[in-house]
Amino acid sequence: MADAKTRSRVAEMEAAFERRARANGRTFEQEVEFLIERQQPLTPEERVATIRYLHSRCNGIQPSLTLDEIREGLM
C-alpha cells in the first residue's frame, strides 16, 4: 500500500516538474538541472524524480573500471 502511494506521489512530482519546466520556458531536463544547480535541499519526492531522470539517461548497468583505468585516473 505504501509503495503504491509513494509511486503515485512520485508520478505527481514528475508531472509537477514538467508543468514547472513549461512555465519557466525550459525542458524537463533543463528544469532538473536547474533544481540541482540551485543547491537547495530537495524534497523527498523531488529527489526521487531527479534520480529517476538521471537513471533514465543511463543505458543499463555501466561496466566497472578496470584496475588500469582506476590507476590512470589517480595519476
What is the string of helix and strand elements? HHHH
Q: Which runs of at least 5 residues are low in confidence (pLDDT < 50)?
A: none
Helical coverage, percent range: over 70%
> How far is the first residue's CA from the last residue's CA?
50 Å
Shape: elongated
Which structural class is indicated by helix and strand composition?
A: mainly alpha
Main sheet overview: none
Provide structural commentary.
By secondary structure, this protein is an all-alpha fold. It contains 4 helices and no strands. The protein has helices at 2-23, 28-37, 44-56, 67-74. Helix 1 (2-23) crosses helix 3 (44-56). The radius of gyration is 16 Å and the shape is elongated. The termini are far apart. The mean pLDDT is 79.
Tags for this entry?
0% strand; mainly alpha; 75 residues; single chain
Q: Would you spell out the secondary-structure blueprint of this structure?
A:
Layout: H1 2-23, H2 28-37, H3 44-56, H4 67-74
Summarize this entry quickly:
71% of the residues lie in helices and 0% in strands.
